[in-house]
Amino acid sequence: MTGNTVTHHGTVRGNRHRLMIRCGLLGAGLGILTGCATGGEDNWNSTAVGDDKSIGELDLRSVLLVTRDEGDPARLLGTFENNGDQPLEVTITDDDEDITVTVPAQGSATLDTLETLLQTAGDAPGARTSLTATTDAGDVELLVPVVDGTLDPYQPYLPTHLTS
Question: Tens digits of per-residue pLDDT, 122-141?
Answer without folding.
Answer: 899 999 999 999 999 999 99
